[in-house]
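Quick start: read one record
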Amino acid sequence: MPIHSFHLATVPPMTAARALFREPNGPSDGGVPGLTHIEHLSLMRLGAPAISLERLRLRRLAVFAQWESEQALDDYLGTHPLGRHLADGWHVRLEFVRRWGAVTGLHRLPLNASAMDPDEPVVAVTLAHLKLPQVRRFFHWGRPVEQLVRDSPGTTLALAAIRPPRTFSTFSVWNSVREMRAMVEGHGTSHAPQRHATAMAEREREDFHTEFTTLRFRPVSEHGEWEGRRGIVPTS
């Protein structure tokens, strides 16, 4: 059964550099049995200034991947040099539910694979390829949304990650679909809840991206710990 995974790990500097600056989904990844797509990104601190040491967390690696099966993922974690580093960190296994937009490599996912109950936990992943002339404008409108998601009482984990120069991703774990939708639609209890809707309207006016997708997942299982935390994914 196909599965996705999202990983967080602190890795040696050279390991992080090799992962970030090699060709994504290139020959070194193409030799991994059962791997159909992978993104290597450097973790960022949500809401921090766009260009700052506070924002960039270069040794903290985020990896998002698509697999033919859980066995393929288990084999990767057990035998691949980077996979063994990821096995020492934290990851969540994910069942794909829904897609908006498209990026190369994930564009064949169906728009809708299944339905979710409003009260079940949900994981959201966004992946974007920025237009370089739009980077400043993207962060101007995006940082308030990052802060909104980070501070939402409905999230148990929210983060952003980047692969220079133009690939950007966000990852968030929500207590429920209902709480996530309230944030997206501007009905949450946080300060200035319309920030997400405002940024989306600005993106419609003049797009920041060459490619963009939002993916929704049902969490299947959680493994390891991140910064001393376990049980990040809520139980239904």
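DSSP finds seven helices and eight strands in the chain.
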